[in-house]
Amino acid sequence: TGRLLVRNSRGTMKLDFFLTKRFYWFVSSYFEQDTFQDLKLRTSLSTGPGYQFIEKGDYAGPWLKDLTMYAEVGAAYFNEDYTVAGDKSSARSRWSVKLDWPMLDSKMTFYHYEEGFIALQNTKDFYFTADTGLRFKLIGALTTGFQWTVRYNGIPAPGTSDTDNLYFITLGYAFDTSRKR
What's this model's pTM, rounded to 2 decimal places? Predict the structure, then answer.
């Protein structure tokens, strides 16, 4: 058809400072651009506590031994710069959940990562994004996968949709940067 359907980008950075083996304090940033949602740049700077509910090795056996899950809550500064609509910023609460479930010596991994921001001034004004998918190990560190990303904006820019669904077929290179404690 030759028609451009999607033009967006997203980037995040996060640091975890462990206070105990499972309890930590995080500092994170979130950046997103979406031309078709009139969004020049969405920025969030967040901090708060997190907890690792399930760590590698908590369970035995080939299906559960590498399962990990953590959750976080915290405070966030949230700013949205639009091309046409009026810009807005607010103080928000933030939550995040991440589940990684490598199975059969990481030959297949199911994952789910979600992050949400609720405005303290107006609870109808919230933003939510989630990535869910399956990743398969090919050769060495080469991977392929299928991913569904959903993004929901409770108060979108005028003339735009409140929900985006994106579907990906991916090819990538996986490496583990975690250190053993």
Answer: 0.87
